[in-house]
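QA checklist item 7 of 12: single-chain prediction sanity check.
[x] sequence parsed
[x] length recorded as 231
[x] structure emitted
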Amino acid sequence: KDWISNTKDNHQDTPSIVFDLGSGAGRDVCYLAEETKAFFHNSALQQQTKEQNNNQFPLHFVGVDNHKGSARRCEPLWRNRMIDDIATSLLLNLNKLDLVNDCFTNTSFINQTAKNNKSPSKVLCIYAIRFLNRKVLSYIANSTSSDNESPSLCLPIGTIIAISHFCKPTKTAEWNFDHPKVSNVLDRDELSTLFGSKNDDVEKWAILKDDICHDGDHGRTLIQFIARKIT
């Protein structure tokens, strides 16, 4: 949870945005929002920022899904868990990269999702749990940190990408499970290759975590992958 401290330096006046891609019923948003909210209010960070932003929680969570019923499933849960003031459901087709670009970079678009937010917000974290869209991951991996490099996606330095998804345990391993289909399973080095590649001999992302674990029921392997944008 210490990545919440990244909000101190650049986003004191307005919440930073955390996107959950393929959020479904909103359970992961709910858990992460509850945990980070509790951490914030019980940490030294609260005291450090109290006078600067009136004890404002520095994050806003946006659950992104292309299912029209997603908001109806998410919002009652979020109200019940008392995080609906820091969470928003967004209907978006992630295969339409122009809409993805608006979602991540158009501050007026972002500000509509952050309740009571009047100042420009920036993306802090994009994560996906058991959701795979290779097209949008490639778009994120190839993003720039300068809005002068259109039509590339522009994400601020320090943006975190975090992925937990089904993955083959080794380079040569087969996938011996019926669900998900092998086409929806990551190769072992797929993410490290995608986010670790260089552009003009410059690394865009620093890989912080690239581990394999097992799910708790069927023994399927998953990757826990985190990278931070450095250029």
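[x] summary fact logged: DSSP finds eight helices and nine strands in the chain.
[ ] second reviewer sign-off
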